[in-house]
Specification:
Layout: H1 3-8, E1 13-14, H2 18-35, H3 42-52, E2 55-56, E3 60-62, E4 66-68, E5 74-76, E6 80-82, E7 86-89, E8 94-96, E9 101-102, E10 107-109, E11 111-112, H4 117-120, E12 124-127, E13 130-132, E14 137-138, E15 143-144, E16 149-150, E17 155-156, E18 161-162, E19 170-173, E20 178-182, H5 185-202
Parallel strand pairs: 2-5, 3-6, 4-7, 5-8, 6-9, 7-10, 8-13, 9-14, 10-15, 13-16, 14-17, 15-18, 17-19
Antiparallel strand pairs: 1-12, 11-12, 19-20
Helix pairs in contact: 2-3
Protein name: Acetyltransferase
Keywords: Acyltransferase, Coiled coil, Repeat, Transferase
Family: Belongs to the transferase hexapeptide repeat family.
């Protein structure tokens, strides 16, 4: 197996070799071009992201700066937004659903490193995929670690370190990130009331 094949299979690998170096250089080029765009170049930004990522939905927006290892292992759905300083270390697949919003400095890490220093010092590492469902809000300065799945309709509080799976329909926060409570019908009613008041005010 090549180093890239080993990486994508979740086996120990070394981040070297012609294929991985080529993919990494392409990602660095595209992220450099993206990060050097201006606020007037919204369409060009989206074009660069669609070239960088493996798959994208409609209406994706990322505030520069943004960085990733390869980009080709990232999939995002419709209506994706990431605020400043998002970093995605995508040595394994990162799948993000529809209507997912990131606060500033959200980091997703799929890369893992051996506990044994002897093995780690040989520059061996591995990757585990990250999956985020639909309708998820991730607060600023959150770190999402390798192998984590975050369910749909869930809110992750700012400053969280997500080390284990988080289910659908909850508010979770902390280091390590834990479920605080379920999202209820009372939450929906409260926020729909405020939404209706907003539209009433702006339409008067």
């Amino acid at each position: 197996m090549t180093e890239k094949e080993r990486m994508l299979a979740g086996k120990l690998y070394k981040a070297q070799g012609e294929e991985l170096n080529k993919d990494n250089q392409q990602a660095k080029k595209l992220t450099r071009l993206f990060n050097n765009t201006t606020e007037e170049e919204k369409e060009h930004r989206e074009k660069l992201l669609k070239e960088l990522f493996a798959a994208t939905g409609e209406k994706i927006y990322i505030e520069p700066p943004f960085n990733c290892d390869y980009g080709s292992n990232i999939e995002v759905g419709n209506n994706f937004y990431a605020n400043y300083d998002c970093i995605i270390i995508d040595v394994a697949e990162v799948k993000i659903g529809n209507n997912v919003f990131f606060g500033p400095r959200v980091n997703i890490y799929t890369a893992g490193h051996p506990i044994s220093a002897e093995v780690r010092n040989e520059m061996l590492e591995f990757g585990e995929p990250v999956t985020i469902g639909d309708d998820v809000w991730v607060g600023g300065n959150t770190v999402i670690n390798p192998g984590v799945t975050i369910g749909s309709n869930t809110v992750i509080g700012s400053g969280s370190v997500v080390t284990k799976d988080i289910p659908d329909g909850v508010v979770a926060a902390g280091n390590p990130c834990r479920v605080i409570r379920e999202i209820t019908n009372e939450d929906k009613e409260y926020w729909n009331k405020l939404k209706n008041e907003y539209y009433k005010d702006v339409n008067e």
